[in-house]
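Researcher: I'm preparing a figure for a lab meeting and need a structural model of a single chain. I don't have an experimental structure, so a prediction will have to do for now. The sequence is pasted below. Please return the structure as tokens so I can convert it later.
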Amino acid sequence: MTPLPLAGVRVLDIATFIAAPFAAALLGEFGAEVIKIEQPEGGDPLRRFGTPTTRGDTLAWLSEARNKASITLDLRTPRGAELFRRLVPTADVVCENFRPGTLERWGLGWETLSALHPGLILLRVSGYGQTGPYRDRPGFARIAHAFGGLTHLAGLPGGPPVTPGSTSLADYMSGLFGAVGLLVALRHRDATGQGQVIDLGLYESVLRVLDELAPAYAHAGIVRGPEGAGTRNACPHGHFPCADGGWVAIACTNDKMFERLARVMGRPELAGPDAYGPLARRLDARASVDGLVEDWTRVRPQAEVVAACTRGEVPCAPINTIADLFVDPHVQARGNLVEREAPGVGPVVLPDVLPRLSATPGRVDHPGPALGADTTRVLRTLGLSDDEIETLRRDRVI
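Model: Understood. Here is the structure written out token by token.
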């Protein structure tokens, strides 16, 4: 198999659930060796989150722990911590997402780890980051959505805040930012030999992707609220029902796009300068404009609306379910879903690697491993004998 660009990079993933482990998985898709270190009893809680499989873990685990090796090691015990300290000099990266201070209590804080390996890079993901008055508070993605300002934007005007898409969105965003940080830090380490700490709070990833909310508030005191299916900056720009029960998304972000839509609808006069052609007029009459578009989509099946908009070069897409995506010809042509065999489970369909690289594309070698599948192999590399490994297992250190 073609060597991947991160081949030779070793990642010790001692984190749990999604954010920091997702960063490690992204590196693993491009060739890094990722060793997942889990508690001997039960392992990562992600193994029990989502749809169970016949093997005892879940489909979420099989997807998100892809390409990783699994060893068990109780870092809370003196022997477990000592074995981890022996692994650190063999690694380039450690990923963790415990509450701040946890690694320090185990004798595995940054000062200890960097003394063992000055070139080590430590990714630390927590609810609120390693500093500040909220550093000790627990955090999950739902909490990050709320605190970071995203949940306030989700829902219908006047209604209750709702879940903004996936309940794990902040975890995945933080994992992406974490992976970017790791790649930058690896580049710096290769140039200088120096490692560093990457400190990331879940809410910070949410705050970073809120469009112009921060400058708009600072500049003009604007506090945006929930806008339902639309947006304050463009019109028509939302979701519209179709005759067959389906829905479409239409996005007219400028006057030219609306002119095209008006022609597709057979109402070119709507885009005139004295009608709804200028964006300011459309924004002032948002309900009327959206109503005209809905009158047009509501009497046509979804496929017809999408086809007409496509011919007219109007941005439009069906609002798909995952079942729709499985049979969509574009998704199939792009290879966005791949099938891999999971021992004890059978074939599993997973989202493929992103981004696509022309010369060194990443790959999914295997779904998430069984708990402790690689413990013996990895500990042997530290010079432990089979008898020593068996003693550790008997004492529940592994």
